[in-house]
Every structure is written in C-alpha cells, then in structure tokens.
Amino acid sequence: MRRDEYDRFTDQLRARLEPDPRVLGLVALGSMSGEPPLPDEWSDHDFFVVTRPGEQERMRNDLSWLPRAGEIVLAFRETEHGVKAVYRDAHLLEFAVFDPDELRLARVNRYRVLFDRADLETRMRALRERTAREARPADARWLRGQLITGLLVAVGRYRRGERLSGRARLQAAAADLVQLASTSLPARPGSVPDSLDPLRRVEAAWPRFAAALDEALALPPPAAALRMLALARELPEFPAEAAAVLERHLASH
C-alpha cells in the first residue's frame, strides 16, 4: 500500500468511528502512530478501538464499521479482544476492541490517540510506561545461558530428525542472541529498536551484526548454530569454557 493510500485509510477509519456513539476513542499503534519508523508499502494498520462498556463484543464480531468492509476476504478473532482482517488487496489490519477497563490488559510502545472521549491519553501514557518497565532487557548472564542451551537443543532436535522443531528453536536462539548483542553493541544513531519484539528493526540498529546473523540463519541448523556461536563469542564476558564445549559438540557430527 502506497503512503498516500495508507494515510487515506487512516483518515477513513477515523471518519467512520468518530461519529459512532458506541466509540470513545481510537488509538493508532506501530507504523500508524506517526512515531518513527514511518509506514512503508509493507506496513499494516494496527490500532485500538475503545468503546462504551457492553459495545465491544458487537464491534469485534460485526466489522461493517471498517472502511471498505465489503472487500475483506478474511477476518478472525486472534485473541479474546483482538481481530485480524485481510483485504482483497492483501492489506492487513490488526486491531483490538476494548472498553476502558479492558484497556489495562494491553501492552504498547508507539501510539497516537486519534480522538478521545474518555481520557485515553492519560491511560495510554500509563500503559506505555508500564510496558517499558516490563520490557526491560533480560539479564545478560541469563541470555548467555539461554543462547548456549538453546543452540544445543536446536541442533540436537534437528539431528534427531525433528527438523521443524530444531529450526524453530534456532530462531528462538536468534532472538536471545539479538537481545544479548543489544546489551553491549551501540545502536546506530536515529534507529528505533523495538521494545516488544527483539527481532524487529535489527537491521537498522545494528546493520553489520544483523547481516552476519541473517547469513548464519540461511545455513543448515548445525552450521547456523556454529556461526551464531562465533558471533556470540565476540561479545563481552561470553563464557569461554561452555562455548568451547558447545563448539566441539556442534562440530562433532
């Protein structure tokens, strides 16, 4: 979706919801929030609709309030409060409908309140502060241990024949490696690492590290694990003896 189309959809969504007496507010999230990074052709629309108590379930089930609702080819409940919808042009919406009390269940980083009849700005600011506290980087010692044991399990499962599970565990280990790297590698100025998903925007924040990790993950899991271990060993205080044991084990088959 082009940027002008993206912004037009946002305007249409607001125009449809603001006069609706059931709706107390609309909160734009992620790329839709206006905070960097700004939307591009791959961005979806991610938002919260806040309703009067008792109206939220009807709006989760009847999506006729969405712009171009007749062009939706797939819609389903992802969570108790959240819905995903796909349009005929492959544009994706990810949204949740809350009443004001249910809003406390959410986790947010980037947001913008598009209209507000229930002091949502105060609520959203508190939610972002709470989310930031809860999303503090994990302890580096814990991440080192998770990475070493994760690589060990991933390759063991792959060699056992559980190839899909092994690849999934390797991807989880990649997230641990990114979080570990973020504790010591300075991010590129102006980049905005994602506080909720460690694998988002790694390429913008740490381009050389991201390229090396991407190349590693393109290899078969045993070789990928060795390459990931080599990246980890370049980071401060990585446990040398445990790394050597893992390296010998990964290279032994």
Notes on the protein architecture:
The protein has helices at 3-17, 56-61, 120-134, 140-160, 163-182, 202-205, 207-217, 221-233, 240-251, and strands spanning 23-29, 45-51, 72-77, 82-87, 92-98, 111-116. It has 253 residues and is of the alpha+beta class. It folds into 2 domains: 3-134, Beta Polymerase, domain 2 (2-Layer Sandwich); 140-251. A 6-stranded mixed beta sheet has the order 3-4-5-2-1-6, sandwiched between helices. α4 (140-160) runs antiparallel to α5 (163-182), α4 runs antiparallel to α8 and α7 (207-217) runs antiparallel to α8 (221-233). It is elongated, with a radius of gyration of 22 Å.
CATH architectural group of the largest domain: 2-Layer Sandwich
Strand content: 15-25%
Number of strands: 6
Q: State the helix count.
A: 9
How would you sum up the major sheet?
A: 6 strands, mixed
Termini Cα gap = 47 Å
Mean pLDDT: 93
Assembly category? single chain
Binned, the helix content reads 40-55%
Low-confidence stretches: none
How many discrete domains?
2
